[in-house]
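Much of our argument rests on the idea that a fold can be written as discrete symbols. The amino acid sequence and the backbone structure tokens for this protein are reproduced below:

___
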Amino acid sequence: MQPKVTRAYDDLANPERCIVKMYEKYIQIRPQNEKSTAFYLRPKKYTTPAGWFDDIPVGIHTLQQTVSKLCKSCGFEGYFTNHCYMQQPLHVFMLLVWMNN
């Protein structure tokens, strides 16, 4: 089985919502000497200039609840699943960034 490859391009019209810029920022604020291979790392309780994340993967239950929490906070009603976001980790990252701002 080969890993899925996706492409993303700069959004020059909306740089503050550009997925490429968000990814680059995320890579900068991850631990420098990380041992974890997980994409999503647990945020620190208190951020420091040295980093925003612990070198610990986010728990599976936290990831599973992400779409549900987002939809609820936006006032959407109904049943929403994570299925579409399992294939697009950067989209989930964008949603998490948006939730924490």
Q: What stands out?
A: Residues 15-99 form one domain. The mean pLDDT is 78. Residues 40 and 58 are 6 Å apart (CA to CA). The longest helix spans residues 60-73.
